[in-house]
């Protein structure tokens, strides 16, 4: 006995030019409690769409008068809310990828498995109901109501989100710390693409937070209630890959003492995150491709296939296109995984987020260790700004972990090279006033004035009584001169100093520099 859908009155439009198949789809959906209309061509389908609203449109890819993609494009152009599911012929992976890129919620491969058909339609209807507020599908879309701030404000994420977004989704996005333009773009893209089923490829250097992006995609999707299964593809022995991914029956290999499910089965109804997908051997790549395309897996030791319902999110630090050219990665798998790409910036490309990252990481480290959050001086922040941080956020977190462990008192002492056995922190040179910061063709800004060499026999400058005040005075003088020479154009002054606009605004506020209003650009 079939289960009734989450939205019993949901209205579905089925578009297929084969009468027998169209009738089969209609009967299947009617038994599920949906209201169903049918069409055999693009023109007929569009007539239905012009006369009323639907919750979902199920369309064949190839129709007598055009492609099902035309319906997707028209629906998108008119900003309609119908979720579209495209049916493609067996083996036509390119069509499925093209449909997902065009905005399809999901796709089905012919011959369609009716159990999978019902599951995909139910997901599309539930997702549409969630975003449309469960309004009657035949009614015109009302104007959006003004957002009301709830009594307890959810975590700030820095991007526009619907007012009814779950707190778990906001919290997942808030873990992607940073308000730089690059991070705002990443978070906005997550919110935009999380709703569908299209595979997502997250690209970024090691330590940039690729798994956090995958978890945010899951939390913002209609699959958030399902499992999130993370797999490190490079950490599994090649001989165990198939059993780990697809499961195994008792006795299927030496040591298989009982039936076990694979990652695909464990992620049923949720998200499967394939980290470092570029490390997967070629022999396993072909099997993974088939599982993704057919949405079926065959556990080791059995001839019976199992239908799986997972969304694939993968990640890599490698250039997969170069890997394809070198013959180390299958081109068809690359196109299947890379339907939507999210690129994470390296930490060196978003230095303006460093302060917020340190604050968030220190709070988490202190909470985990049961210690008070240590105070971080501007001197420590400047040290970090001058450090390459090639390991990105992971390296920053390790540095702060060590600093919290080795610091005495409430003030953070930073050990940049790890050799703090003598209890002293080791400083790196601060290229704050380096001539290299000057733009080509411009005279370099002057460095801080040298200390009078009145230490006999040593030639070293005296240590200032208040280092922080001394550093602030020098930085203030440099920033003021850059602003004055740029006519108080902050963008030009920032470029002269090798800073972003956000960074120079931060320094102006911190140092108390008076700047005429209206000269940001």
Automatic annotation (TrEMBL):
Residue ranges, compositional bias (Pro residues): 137-153
One annotated GO biological process: phosphorelay signal transduction system
Limits of the Response regulatory domain: 11-125
Domain Sigma-54 factor interaction: 176-405
GO terms of molecular function: ATP binding; sequence-specific DNA binding
Region span, Disordered: 128-153
SMART domains referenced in this protein's UniProt entry, alphabetically: AAA, REC
Keywords noted in UniProt: ATP-binding, Nucleotide-binding, Phosphoprotein, Transcription, Transcription regulation
Entry keyword Disulfide bond: no
Keyword ATP-binding in record: yes
4-aspartylphosphate modifications at: 60
Xref: Pfam families: AAA_lid_14, HTH_8, Response_reg, Sigma54_activat
Protein name as annotated: Fis family transcriptional regulator
Classification lineage: Bacteria, Pseudomonadati, Pseudomonadota, Betaproteobacteria, Burkholderiales
């Amino acid at each position: 006995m079939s289960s009734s859908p989450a939205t019993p009155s949901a209205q579905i439009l089925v578009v297929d030019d084969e009468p027998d198949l169209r009738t089969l789809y209609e009967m299947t959906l009617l038994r599920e409690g949906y209201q169903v209309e049918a069409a055999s061509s693009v023109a007929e389908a569009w007539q239905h769409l012009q006369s009323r609203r639907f919750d979902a449109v199920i369309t064949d890819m190839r129709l007598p008068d055009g492609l099902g993609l035309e319906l997707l494009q028209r629906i998108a152009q008119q900003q309609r809310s119908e979720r579209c599911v495209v049916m493609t012929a067996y083996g036509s992976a390119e069509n499925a990828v093209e449909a997902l890129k065009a905005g399809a919620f999901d796709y089905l491969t012919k011959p369609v498995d009716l159990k999978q058909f019902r599951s995909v339609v139910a997901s599309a209807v539930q997702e549409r109901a969630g975003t449309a507020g469960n309004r009657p599908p035949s009614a015109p879309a009302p104007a959006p109501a003004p957002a009301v701030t709830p009594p307890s404000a959810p975590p700030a994420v820095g991007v526009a989100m619907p007012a009814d977004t779950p707190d778990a989704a906001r919290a997942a996005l808030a873990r992607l710390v940073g308000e730089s333009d690059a991070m705002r773009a990443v978070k906005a893209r997550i919110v935009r693409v999380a709703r569908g089923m299209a595979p997502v490829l997250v690209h970024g250097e090691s330590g940039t937070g690729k798994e956090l992006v995958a978890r945010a995609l899951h939390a913002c999707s209609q699959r958030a209630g399902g499992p999130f299964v993370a797999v490190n593809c490079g950490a599994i022995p090649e001989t165990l890959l198939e059993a780990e991914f697809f499961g195994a029956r008792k006795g299927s290999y030496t040591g298989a003492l009982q039936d076990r499910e694979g990652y695909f089965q464990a992620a049923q109804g949720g998200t499967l995150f394939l980290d470092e997908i570029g490390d997967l051997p070629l022999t396993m790549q072909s099997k993974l491709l088939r599982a993704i395309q057919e949405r079926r897996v065959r556990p080791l030791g059995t001839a019976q296939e199992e239908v799986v319902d997972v969304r694939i999110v993968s990640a890599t630090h490698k250039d997969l296109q170069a890997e394809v050219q070198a013959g180390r990665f299958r081109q068809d798998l690359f196109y299947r995984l890379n339907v939507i790409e999210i690129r994470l910036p390296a930490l060196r490309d978003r230095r303006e987020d460093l302060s917020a990252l340190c604050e968030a990481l220190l709070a988490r480290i202190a909470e985990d260790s049961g210690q008070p959050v240590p105070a971080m001086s501007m001197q420590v922040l400047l040290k970090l700004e001058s450090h390459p941080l090639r390991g990105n956020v992971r390296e920053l977190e390790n540095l702060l972990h060590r600093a919290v462990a080795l610091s005495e008192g409430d003030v953070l002492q930073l050990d940049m090279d790890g050799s703090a056995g003598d209890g002293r922190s080791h400083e790196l040179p601060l290229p704050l006033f380096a001539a290299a910061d000057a733009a080509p063709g411009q005279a370099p800004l002057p460095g801080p004035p040298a200390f009078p060499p009145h230490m006999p026999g040593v030639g070293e400058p005296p240590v200032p009584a208040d280092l922080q005040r001394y550093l602030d005075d020098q930085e203030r003088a440099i920033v003021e001169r850059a602003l004055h020479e740029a006519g108080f154009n902050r963008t030009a002054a920032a470029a002269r100093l090798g800073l972003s606009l956000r960074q120079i605004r931060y320094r102006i506020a911190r140092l108390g520099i008076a700047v005429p209003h209206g000269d940001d650009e």
